[in-house]
Amino acid sequence: MKEFHLTTSAQETALAHVNAARQNLSAWTKTIFDFGETAWREYQSAAWYVERLRAEGFSVEEGSGGMPTAFCAHWTSRAGGNASGPTIGMYAEYDGIPGNCQDAATARRPRAGLSEFAGGHTDPHSGLGMAGLGGLLATKAAMERHGIPGTLRFTGEPAEKVRGSKPIHAARGYYDGLAGMISFHPFYMLPLCNTARWDTHCGAAYSMIYRFVCDAPERWNAGGDGAPIPQSHSAVRAPGANDALMLMLMHSKALRDSMLPHQGGWSISDAVLTAGQATADNLPAALAEVQFMIRVPTLAMAEQVTAALDRIAASAAGLSGCRFERHWVCKSRPGLANHAMANLAWDALSTVGPPQWDASAKAIAREIQRNALGVDTEEPFIPECEALIAPWEAEKILRRDLPPSQTHSTSDDYTDMCWHAPTARFYVARPALRSPNGASPPAWAMNALGGIPETIDPMVVSAAKCISLIALRLLEDEGARSDAMDEFTRRTGGGVGGSEWLPPLCDYDPPIHFRWPEYVTTPRGRDWWIPTPPNQ
User: Fold this and answer.
1) 3-state class (DSSP) for residue 32
2) pLDDT surpasses 90 at 186
3) Which of left, alpha, beta for 85 (phi over 0: left; psi -120 to 50: alpha)?
4) List of residues 6+ apart from 303 with CB closer than 8 A
5) Exposure check for the chain: N or C terminus, fewer CB within 10 A?
């Protein structure tokens, strides 16, 4: 591995700060993991970050962009008199996924008092957000000690799993004016482990909710049955909103293979959000909603799928005597490469090195292997977790499975940041198990590794160090800032508003008023919206 040597005392201060904060970062990561809140309903998680940031001296705007669980925090160094210095962007995500409630334990079990259907962290965003916070606070400490002028902007990004906040923040100016944006994610697919994105960035993502409403069931049998009460049992014969939703699901699945080319790694996912039944009474369902998520390389492909789904929705509504509405959840742009920023991330990764797991962490991982796979190995983690791979080498491997014409792969809404500031997207290994018998480790095992301090803390610490090094390089090195901005200007054809620049696609309000899965408080106590069985 090539050795990089720190060139500034500020960088050394930042690394020392992260090391000193290890115990806090560990406890804080576990706190967010145990909240296990999901898209648009991360109330405790967002409140925790706001309180922590204010305690650290940041000014915080709560509910940024009209999103109740989003925020935007600022801190400015007054060093250098009137010299304002550059502004650097970082962020936290903290949403989990319904149906992934796993305790921080070596066996499969939900967190105490909850069912497995409750929310939980998978990627894990609990560690992602804490690495961002750790890097932010280390950068601030170095700026204070060494008199470095500049501003730190830290946004709270809810609902990433549905590509929620970043298109909205982008459209409302929260990424404008940055000298650089630093985007980190726990590694989630090889070869993107302990490396940075080079050319092939994430693609476009559209998500929408189709709402079917049966608000005039009496019209279905227009002749009526002669009953003196208009709302008589004849209305039950109207198909209702559930039938419209079923038609939508069946036809979308039947036509899915025809919507886009077979190659390219695109996907279309669906989720039923709610069914407005009168507790299965003799009335037709008045309301039913289904969400679709489209992950594709290009905006043109996203528009193509949307048009097909619109036609299906209109047909389903017509066949069932309903009307339909389409509500946007997200419209996210494909990513924009910036080699100068990728090189800064690679320099930081090379300085910090990959995460390392000690004997205690490996013993825990072997126990999970035995419980999940029936066998353990002396080295329980895949070797890539403790190795670096250069961005351009990872790019070569990534391109092996992609057609030459495809410029983007997979999806994540950090891509919306790329069009407003030079952006580095880098990955640090989360612990991933070896599978000696060829079976894939179950989801609970990966989720548990993301919550157990001994196994997840090395990722959080390594990523926090990298974030602080990238930020300080941008703050201290005018040449590095200029290189990144020059490349951004060139790739966008003139910067924001340039000839090759993609403007924000967000022309909708935050979709916060839908029946998103969430934790609820009832006379029975705090529970998931699917009640926990008494034996759990």
Assistant:
1) helix
2) yes
3) left
4) none
5) N
Cα Rg of the chain (Å, integer): 25
Q: How confident is the model at residue 492 (pLDDT cuts 50, 70, 90)?
A: very high
Question: Per residue in 250-275, pLDDT tens?
Answer: 999 888 878 877 666 788 888 888 76
Three-state secondary structure readout of 228-267: CCCCCHHHHHCCHHHHHHHHHHHHHHHHHHHHCCCCCCCE
Tell which residue, 10, 153, 181, 178, has the closest CA to residue 86.
178
SS (H, E, C) 112-169: CCCCCCCEECCCCHHHHHHHHHHHHHHHHHHHHHHCCCEEEEEEEECCHHHCCHHHHH
Cα 206 from Cα 387, distance rounded (Å): 34
> How far, in Å, are 39, 50, 169, 426 from residue 174 at the CA level?
20, 17, 5, 21
The closest alpha carbon to 182, from 94, 88, 95, belongs to 88
Condensed to tens digits (0 to 9), the pLDDT of residues 49-75 reads 999 999 999 999 999 999 999 999 999
What 3-state class would DSSP assign to 200? coil
Reported as a single tens digit per residue, the pLDDT across 287-345 is 999 999 999 999 999 999 999 999 999 999 999 999 999 999 999 999 999 999 999 99
The tally of CA atoms less than 13 A away on the side-chain side of residue 363 is 4
Number of other CB atoms surrounding residue 326 within 10 Å: 14
